Amino acid sequence: MSSQYERMWSELGLDLPAHDNLLKVLAQFYGDIYLSQQGRLRGAEYLDFVISEVHGLRIQELCKAKEEGKKIVGCFCVFVPEELVWAANAICVGLCAGAEIGQAEAERVLPRATCALIKSFMGFKLGRLCPFFESSDLVVGETTCDGKKKAYEILGEFCPVHVMEIPHMKEQWDRTMWKAEVLRFMRRLEVLTGVPITKDRLAAALRMINERRTVLKRLNSLRTAIPTPISGRDVLLVDQISFYDDPPRFTKKIGELCDELQQRVAQGKGIVPPETPRVMLSGCPMAVPNWKLPYVVESSGAVIVGEESCIGTRNIRDLVAEDGTTLDEMIDRIVDRYMKIDCACFTPNQERLEHIVQMCQELKVNGLIYYTLQFCHPYAIESYKVEKALERIGIPVLKIDTDYSMEDVRILKNRVEAFVEMIKG
Ligand code: BJ8
User: Residue 96: pLDDT above 90?
Assistant: First the structure.
């Protein structure tokens, strides 16, 4: 891919040697973790293609859109109402935050004891490694956890950043504040693009994003079958790609993959024997190319059947109601939908516990792996309540606290293998 796109990357200002290195690591990872799987669906060719062109064709599309006057808006958090971005005729993209590369750059401005996700996005920006970042006309941050909130102040020295104030409770006052924030974001987008967000434009954007969430819901419902018809790794990849690819194309391709999956389920076929221990992951989001733990789990005799995470069910559980007839009613529907997010940044956060219990029961899991990135206090502290809630329904929990390095893979594998042996019994 390198020579074909080198000019584009250079015009975007990427550090070409460092970027080449990133692509090499990505290709090797992908080969080892994804292409080595047996019995994948034909529809997985779309996933392979998107990943092989993630810094190529997709970026070319973004550059073309920019030439035509469109703006690119980069985001990190599922709290950012992307419907507004599309309604303002801009393109919304998720920014990379799942690789260790760039960490040394990040540690020039951030304390070492910062979570890997924050260090990763800072490293990508400072190291000029990510063409999505370099294409973005605006980066949207949020005041979810303290690490992110303070890191965006620094990031703002290197690119235009808009920070959304996120409520941390769910009282009436919090909703009022959140609606004001949504409206402030809407104005910022209108100034950025010069396109007023109208009722019709917003209705079309709501529909488009609802359709994407609906196809992901279908995928998640099909994978509940026993034997499991698709690997957790592949479903995670689908979730990750949903943040990058063009929404209508993604919805169509994943719809086709679901049709194939449905046939497989009807034939009673699985990618693993029916007695394979079923595991659910819960906790911090796994951004591309953070595939370490899913690989460890699925190469240790278990299969992942659900992800309680933002790159997982949290982002697709709720749709925005499409019954608003005025612009203000539509904004209200957006406000209400996003207030249902149960990120660990909220207090209290009883809904999350209920969702986890419900998922474990519906997916018939044998065990839950609670995943935290080192130095992530919201998710690490909330693990106490999750473990207690699951103890009440007899689901064993394994807690994994790690980062993006590969140094602990052996240790993780030993711990996961022991857990899988235990839940098998
Ligand atoms: S809505 S989960 S995407 S904030 S892992 S940076 S919390 S220290 S990512 Fe998140 Fe939005 Fe919540 Fe979802 Fe901080 Fe923890 Fe790091 Fe985190």
Answer: no
